[in-house]
């Protein structure tokens, strides 16, 4: 439902789909646009459903095994410290005006 009512997705479809319409075809332009839009939305539904199913499966697996989360948090913390150190010791010392 989110993707069907998303204005950015609709603007993308309005800008992207017309270049694939063939005015000389035996099918009316409106029907071609509806078919292209339906195929696009169906493929989005399949992809987003797969992502949701995969995330649910991975989330259940992570709930049973907390160590990957612990190591991910450690890694993220180390990266934040390293990026902070890089920011502190690099760059131009001039004051921006």
Word description of this protein:
The protein has 97 residues and is an all-alpha fold. The chain has one domain (7-89). The chain has three helices and no strands. The protein has helices at 7-16, 29-64, 67-89. The longest helix is centred in the middle third of the chain and has 36 residues, at 29-64. It is flat and about 65 Å long.
List the helices and strands and how they pair.
Layout: H1 7-16, H2 29-64, H3 67-89
Short descriptors:
mainly alpha, 3 helices
Number of strands: 0
Q: What is the CA-based Rg, rounded?
A: 24 Å
Number of domains: 1
Q: Main beta sheet, described?
A: none
Query: Span between N and C termini?
Result: 47 Å
Number of helical regions: 3
Quaternary state reads: single chain
How helical, in percent, are the residues?
over 70%
Succession of helices and strands: HHH
Taking all residues together, what is the mean pLDDT? 86
What portion of residues belong to β-strands?
under 5%
CA-based shape: flat
Structural class: mainly alpha
List the uncertain runs.
Answer: none
Write a compact overview of the structure shown.
The protein has 97 residues and is mainly α.
